[in-house]
Amino acid sequence: MDAPQHHPATAALQNLFNLANETEREVARHLELNLTDYRALSALLQSGPLTAGALGETLGATAATTTAIVGRLEARGYAERLRSAEDRRHVHVSATPAAADRIRHLMLPLMDATNRHIHTLPADEQAAIAGFLDVALTLMQDHLHSLSEKDTP
Questions:
Q1: I need a labelling partner for 132 at 20 to 30 A (CA). Which of 14, 26, 84, 118 fits?
Q2: Could you tell me the pLDDT band of residue 14, with boundaries at 50, 70 and 90?
């Protein structure tokens, strides 16, 4: 049986996902991190400070694995543990400004080139692209959620 034919935009989006994965691996390599540690750092940069438990939940990692990840990120200067001012027993893990700067430095050429290209397009095309990407993001989040639900007993 033949596979269904997909719209060229669908195929291009799948190729973009694949390149995003490759880019993630290369950024991790430039930071001298393994992919799991890089994903932990990315989670911290996106969410802001998290408890080790919350970071572990985000990553789907055990407490021991999360502790090791945080230790490696701290050793590289990419994360720091911060005690809560209200309750010194609570510790949050935060990405350092140096980590954010390094990742920004690695990603800025792509972001700037994309931004320049989008601004060369007519306003209606810019709006259509933004709308499509918003829908693609929602579809991907929904798909990820449905995959995650399948893993839950």
A1: 26
A2: very high
